[in-house]
């Protein structure tokens, strides 16, 4: 097996996009909101619900305010990229498909030790859990591999297979880089070669300062409450839209508010203004929103609802 | 006699679940086969990360033909009864036989159950096993509804004998059983078919899979120790890790790597824990220095570069992890060298338990109690208090935050770095011990004092808020804490009255719990109570002493019914008794292992100073030994007889026969002899008890056996002569009194 090694961060992303496109996934774009992980993208959270088949792959910028280190830590960032694949129903050869993606980004199985090590996934904020592994390459965790069992309190039927790659960490390993900021973002031989640090060092500093010290916590609490209230208000609307005369359940607008509430919570957590006991309560409030969105989504067409089935009372 | 081979091939099975899965597969399949009438010679289960395997040797080819006869209703019984019988047998009326019996003509059903081929039974049993498999956690996948630990891909199920192999026809949710499997995921992924277990195991090995988990573990251990030995080093033994790693690989390849120079100064426990928890590495130690200098990782494949790439990658991950650890260690050392103040301050913001308050408050309580306990265990009170004050400091350190299992161990290092006395540093680690029935005990007196104080405070606290263990639920490990105290007291031969310490600590907790709401007078009262218990020993006396004290000091104190203090007067002794009873229960469990009967302990619990566990056990051991002798055993019978007669008489006559047994009313020689024997026993028992020589006391008591037996043999207690009768009953009272002085023999069973 001879392997053509990628030369930059973006080449690894492009190869993953190409690989999963070739395997039949719809290559989506990142969701245009602040989320803590690729799982929050409605293409995963909502589309893993209901009976309709689905296959999507996308890059998702992810924000974890507590992980901010002002760009100084070689491995930690408050803003980073996840690559996310969701296929429903999970195909029988999902492990092989996944391994193919590692080969596509230049990992040669003749020389490396790939292992599937038990790691069950749970998202208390999404009311979701699944079983799977973290995938190790030479002792390094390069992906999370999960068979969704429940999302938003609903059993997943059929089951989705979810793959999450931590792109920076994976790329650093493949490219042999020790500090994330030194990683070539575009090709090192490009006329204007840019490193990851050229693109993100300053933003890491700015956001770290804002996340830890400057964000207005009183406002954040208000924003949280507002997003929560808006989510509930949207879902409380009747299904039938008087203007268009159609049955329109506004799941996605409501889910946007759930995502916002979750992000405000993460920011408040980074400011250290939420105590241990309150923490559980806030997570429970976000989960309640996620659950309501899930309940609503399975009542929509994308969630597998059909007028005929509803008429039959199925 | 065919052999059965089953392989359930799936995606990676968590290592920790494999041992249980092997057992369950073996038990459920073999039980099912036997229940269906088959027999087998031997069965063995194996596992790798991707397969669960069962090999059954010498299975019978068919289950035997069975004929079952069932007796039904009488021929002239009502139609309903016959219908019921036909339903239950599944026969029709013309298939029944009428037979003559003593009760007349009766219907009989003869049901022939022809034997079935093994394949049919295996298919049924295996399907039921798969569908009901007891995985700790299982999942669905794709569109199916079958549950397995991870997606199940194929089933190999064959019966083989000298004529060849036969696939057992079966299908579980679309997975058809066959005779093929696959080798190593990367090194030999192609499918191949097998005809027997020997063929299977041999072909797997060629396909880079070692089937037997024990063989993999042995190989790993052997290769690791060899590699270490070649460099003059030794592998730190870790059986749990070995089993886990053997469950993560099908083709183990052991690789040894160096730990970066920069990390060699980290405490060995930190290196070991970090490598094990994050990377599943074994630690390799230099026996000359005791330091961890290398690691062993186990890869799942051979490579053209002999593992160089794999080792390099693992080394890089390790370096990143250890940089974190070194960073924590460096930060922690600075705080430790400054006297750990920062940690101790921050512990006032860390909750121990929501009702019981912060870690800082807990530390205060433990420190006070440790000082109190110190003289009882031969420790210096100042050192004991000092040790208790820093023993939990490491809970606020970064290292313990990252690796909670290093609590105590880091405490010792940080106390040393802070320049604290050696006894204090040792107590930081040892006060957590023992962590289980087989764990080491704290040895040095200061460690013992803090260990006892810590555990006792925890127990009293949870008793004060009524969070006791129930059934299998013991989230705060209170049983372990109580057993720890028991083991420390017994194995260190300590003489400690637990009741006083329990009362003190319960009161301390009650005081803390009510600090915010109690009125000033109540608070004042409680604070005095805690002091007074130290002087008076127990709660009741202290309570009165405080009332006296306050009454003399200023205005008279009255505790009105219904007030909080009045309730406390009642509830605290109840809590205290309950906690002491918890200790006694744990003690019984502990002593069962030492062969001491629970009723023997009950008999000793009724005696004074039962809160002094060392004394209690000494008494129980002596009684247990005495009861094992013929005299002892018979004495109990004699005692019980005397006691019963006396109790009946007391009940009948409505009086107590307590005093005045006089030898001058003795009519029989055995009666006179019993008087003498009792005098002799009393004279021996009193000093023996005084000297806590329970063996001598028991022996003196047991010596009463012969005279008591002779007395009952010769004498009628309830004679017509009232004076003689009363005298004899009073004599029985003496037997009771003498025996009960040693132990409550009424509690002895049998």
From TrEMBL, chain A:
Q: Which InterPro entries match?
A: aa-tRNA-synth_II/BPL/LPL (IPR045864), Gly-tRNA-synth_heterodimer (IPR006194), Gly-tRNA_ligase_asu (IPR002310), Gly_radical (IPR001150)
Keyword Nucleus appears in the UniProt entry = no
| CDD domains, per database record | GlyRS_alpha_core
Domain Glycine radical, residue spans: 1-44
Q: What class of enzyme is it?
A: ligase
Residues annotated with Glycine radical modification: 18
Superkingdom classification of source: Bacteria
GO CC terms: cytosol
Q: Does the keyword Thylakoid apply?
A: no
Molecular functions (GO terms): ATP binding; glycine-tRNA ligase activity
Per its record, the protein catalyses: tRNA(Gly) + glycine + ATP = glycyl-tRNA(Gly) + AMP + diphosphate
User: Which HAMAP family does the entry mention?
Assistant: Gly_tRNA_synth_alpha
Give the family per the record. Answer: Belongs to the class-II aminoacyl-tRNA synthetase family.
Q: Which PANTHER family does the record match to this protein? A: GLYCINE--TRNA LIGASE, CHLOROPLASTIC_MITOCHONDRIAL 2, GLYCYL-TRNA SYNTHETASE
Protein name, per record: Glycine--tRNA ligase alpha subunit
Organism of provenance: Rhodovulum adriaticum
Gene, per the UniProt record: glyQ
From TrEMBL, chain B:
Q: Which EC class does it fall in?
A: ligase
Could you give one GO CC term from the UniProt record? cytosol
Q: Entry's InterPro entries?
A: DALR_anticod-bd, Gly-tRNA-synth_bsu, Gly-tRNA-synth_heterodimer
GO BP terms: namely: arginyl-tRNA aminoacylation; glycyl-tRNA aminoacylation
Q: Which GO terms describe its molecular function?
A: arginine-tRNA ligase activity; ATP binding; glycine-tRNA ligase activity
The protein's matches in PROSITE patterns, at most eight in alphabetical order, are given as: AA_TRNA_LIGASE_II_GLYAB
- Catalyzed chemical reaction(s): tRNA(Gly) + glycine + ATP = glycyl-tRNA(Gly) + AMP + diphosphate
**Main location class:** cytoplasm
Which positions fall inside the DALR anticodon binding domain?
Answer: 639-738
Q: Does the keyword Nucleotide-binding apply?
A: yes
Subcellular location as annotated: Cytoplasm
Q: Which Enzyme Commission number(s) are on file for it? A: 6.1.1.14
Swiss-Prot/TrEMBL keywords = Aminoacyl-tRNA synthetase, ATP-binding, Cytoplasm, Ligase, Nucleotide-binding, Protein biosynthesis
Binding partners and assembly: Tetramer of two alpha and two beta subunits.
The entry's family comment says: Belongs to the class-II aminoacyl-tRNA synthetase family.
Which NCBIfam families does the protein's record reference? glyS (TIGR00211)
Full protein name: Glycine--tRNA ligase beta subunit
Where does this protein come from, organism-wise? Rhodovulum adriaticum (Rhodopseudomonas adriatica)
Gene name, Swiss-Prot/TrEMBL:
glyS
């Amino acid at each position: 097996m001879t392997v053509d090694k990628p030369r930059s961060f973006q080449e690894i992303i492009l190869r993953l996009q190409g690989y999963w496109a070739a395997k039949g996934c719809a290559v989506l774009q990142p969701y245009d909101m602040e989320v803590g992980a690729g799982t929050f993208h409605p293409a995963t959270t909502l589309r893993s619900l209901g009976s309709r088949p689905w296959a999507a792959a996308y890059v998702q910028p992810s924000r974890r305010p507590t992980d901010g280190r002002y760009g100084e830590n070689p491995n930690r960032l408050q803003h980073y990229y996840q690559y996310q694949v969701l296929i429903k129903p999970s195909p029988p050869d999902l492990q092989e498909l996944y391994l193919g993606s590692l080969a596509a980004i230049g990992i040669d199985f003749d020389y490396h030790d790939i292992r599937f090590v038990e790691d069950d996934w749970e998202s208390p904020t999404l009311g979701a859990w699944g079983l799977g592994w973290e995938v190790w390459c030479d002792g390094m965790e390069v992906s999370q591999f999960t068979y969704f069992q429940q999302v938003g309190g609903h059993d997943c039927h059929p089951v989705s297979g979810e793959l999450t790659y931590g792109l920076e960490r994976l790329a650093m390993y493949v490219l042999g880089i020790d500090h994330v900021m030194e990683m070539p973002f575009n090709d090192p031989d490009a006329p204007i070669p840019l490193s990851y640090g050229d693109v993100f060092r300053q933003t890491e500093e700015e956001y770290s300062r804002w996340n830890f010290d400057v964000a207005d916590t009183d406002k954040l609490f208000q924003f949280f409450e507002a997003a929560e209230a808006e989510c509930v208000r949207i879902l409380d609307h009747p299904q039938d839209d008087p203007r268009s005369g159609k049955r329109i359940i506004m799941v996605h607008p409501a889910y946007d508010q759930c995502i916002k509430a979750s992000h405000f919570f993460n920011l408040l957590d980074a400011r250290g203004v939420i105590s241990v006991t309150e923490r559980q309560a806030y997570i429970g409030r976000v989960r309640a929103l996620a659950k309501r969105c899930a309940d609503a989504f399975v009542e929509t067409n994308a969630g597998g609802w059909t007028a005929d089935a509803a008429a039959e009372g199925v | 006699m065919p052999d059965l081979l089953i392989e359930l091939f799936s995606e990676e099975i968590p290592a920790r679940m494999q041992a249980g899965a092997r057992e369950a597969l073996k038990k459920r399949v073999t039980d099912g086969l036997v229940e269906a009438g088959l027999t087998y010679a031997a069965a063995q289960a194996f596992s790798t990360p991707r397969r669960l395997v069962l090999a059954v040797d010498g299975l019978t080819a068919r289950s035997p033909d069975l004929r079952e006869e069932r007796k039904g209703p009488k021929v002239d019984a009502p139609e309903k009864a016959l219908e019921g019988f036909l339903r239950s047998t599944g026969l029709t009326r013309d298939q029944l036989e009428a037979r003559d019996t003593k009760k007349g003509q009766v219907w009989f059903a003869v049901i022939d159950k022809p034997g079935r081929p093994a394949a049919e039974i295996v298919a049924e049993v295996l399907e039921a096993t798969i569908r009901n498999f007891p995985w700790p956690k299982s999942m669905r996948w794709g569109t199916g509804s079958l549950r397995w630990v991870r997606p199940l891909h194929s089933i190999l199920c064959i019966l083989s004998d000298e004529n060849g192999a036969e696939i057992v026809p079966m299908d579980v949710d679309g997975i058809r059983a066959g005779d093929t499997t696959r080798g190593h995921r990367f090194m030999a992924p192609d499918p191949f078919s097998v005809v027997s277990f020997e063929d299977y195991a041999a072909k797997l090995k060629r396909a880079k899979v070692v089937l037997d988990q024990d063989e993999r573990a042995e190989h790993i251990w052997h290769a690791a120790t060899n590699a270490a030995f070649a460099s003059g080093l030794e592998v730190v033994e870790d059986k749990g890790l070995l089993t886990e790693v053997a469950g993560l690989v099908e083709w183990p390849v052991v690789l040894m790597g160096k730990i970066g120079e920069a990390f060699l100064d980290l405490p060995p426990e930190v290196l070991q824990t970090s490598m094990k928890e994050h990377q599943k590495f074994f630690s390799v130690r230099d026996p000359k220095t005791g330091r961890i200098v290398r690691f062993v990782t186990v890869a799942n494949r051979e490579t053209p570069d002999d593992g160089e790439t794999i080792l390099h990658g693992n080394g890089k991950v390790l370096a990143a992890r250890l940089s974190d650890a070194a960073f924590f260690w460096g930060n922690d050392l600075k705080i430790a060298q400054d006297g750990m103040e920062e940690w101790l301050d921050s512990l006032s913001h860390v909750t121990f338990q929501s009702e019981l308050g912060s870690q800082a408050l807990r530390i205060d309580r433990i420190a006070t109690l440790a000082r109190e306990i110190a003289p009882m265990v031969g420790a210096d009170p100042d050192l004991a208090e000092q040790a208790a004050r820093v023993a939990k400091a490491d809970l606020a350190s970064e290292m313990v935050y990252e690796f909670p299992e290093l609590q105590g161990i880091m405490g010792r290092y940080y106390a040393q770095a802070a320049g604290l006395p050696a006894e204090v540093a040792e107590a930081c680690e040892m006060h957590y011990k023992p962590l289980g029935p087989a764990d080491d005990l704290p040895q040095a007196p200061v460690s013992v004092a803090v260990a006892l104080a810590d555990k006792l405070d925890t127990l009293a606290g949870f008793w004060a808020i009524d969070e006791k263990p129930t059934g299998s639920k013991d989230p705060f490990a209170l049983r372990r804490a109580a057993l720890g105290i028991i083991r420390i007291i017994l194995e260190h031969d300590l003489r400690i009255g637990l009741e006083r310490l329990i009362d003190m600590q319960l009161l301390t907790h009650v005081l803390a719990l009510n600090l915010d709401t109690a009125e000033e007078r109540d608070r004042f009262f409680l604070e005095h109570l805690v002091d007074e218990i130290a002087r008076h020993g127990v709660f009741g006396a202290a309570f009165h002493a405080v009332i006296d004290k306050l009454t003399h000091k200023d205005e008279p104190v009255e505790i009105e019914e219904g007030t909080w203090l009045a309730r406390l007067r009642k509830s605290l002794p109840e809590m205290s008794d309950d906690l002491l009873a918890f200790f006694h229960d744990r003690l019984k469990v502990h002593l069962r292992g030492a062969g001491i009967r629970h009723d023997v302990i009950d008999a000793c619990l009724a005696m004074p100073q039962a809160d002094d566990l060392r004394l209690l056990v000494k008494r129980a051991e002596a009684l247990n030994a005495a009861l094992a002798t013929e005299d002892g055993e018979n004495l109990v019978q004699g005692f019980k007889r005397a006691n019963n007669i006396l109790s009946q008489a007391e009940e009948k006559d409505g009086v107590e026969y307590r005093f005045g047994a006089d030898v001058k009313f003795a009519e029989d020689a055995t009666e006179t002899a019993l008087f003498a024997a009792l005098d002799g026993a009393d004279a021996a028992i009193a000093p023996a008890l005084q000297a806590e020589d329970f063996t001598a006391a028991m022996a003196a008591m047991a010596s009463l056996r012969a005279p008591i037996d002779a007395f009952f043999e010769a004498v009628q207690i309830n004679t017509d002569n009232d004076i003689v009768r009363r005298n004899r009953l009073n004599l029985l009272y003496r037997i009771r009194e003498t025996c009960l002085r040693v132990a409550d023999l009424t509690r002895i069973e049998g």
